[in-house]
Design goal:
It contains three helices and two strands, in the order αααββ. It is mostly helical. The protein folds into two domains: 55 residues; 33 residues, no CATH class. The structure holds zinc ion (ZN). Zinc ion binds next to loops.
């Protein structure tokens, strides 16, 4: 039966539990995910510390922070909880280059860097 064949092929493609290479790859992936989680927890704690200091010393309120988050979120045209930063035009060669690098990927000229890109 055709459906049994498809099921059998999919099942055969699954890594075996005792495959040492697959186990090592899974362990590396888990270690990397754990590291990212630890760093994210630290970054969240740092942001909360900064925000509570700013709130205490400036009179700004949580509503001000939430409004700024919404405003920044909307700068790329989508309220989706993230900001997509478009490529920038190189001031030396006029081509567009990713904004996450300090130099143009085409001509190597210095480009202004967005600190949050
Ligand atoms: Zn360039």
């Amino acid at each position: 039966m055709a459906s049994m064949y498809i099921f059998g092929a999919g099942y055969a493609a699954q890594p075996q539990r005792d495959d040492p290479a697959a186990r090592a790859a899974a362990d590396r992936a888990k270690s990397k995910a754990d590291d990212v989680e630890t760093r994210l927890d630290r970054a969240m704690l740092t942001m909360e510390a900064i925000w509570t200091l700013v709130r205490e010393r400036t009179g700004l309120a949580d509503a001000d922070l939430l409004q700024r988050i919404a405003d920044l979120d909307a700068t790329d045209g989508m309220l989706d909880g993230k900001v997509r930063r478009p490529p920038i035009k190189c001031p030396h060669c006029d081509r567009t280059t990713p904004n996450r690098f300090d130099r143009c990927m085409y001509c190597g000229g210095d480009v202004p860097r967005d600190p949050f890109a």
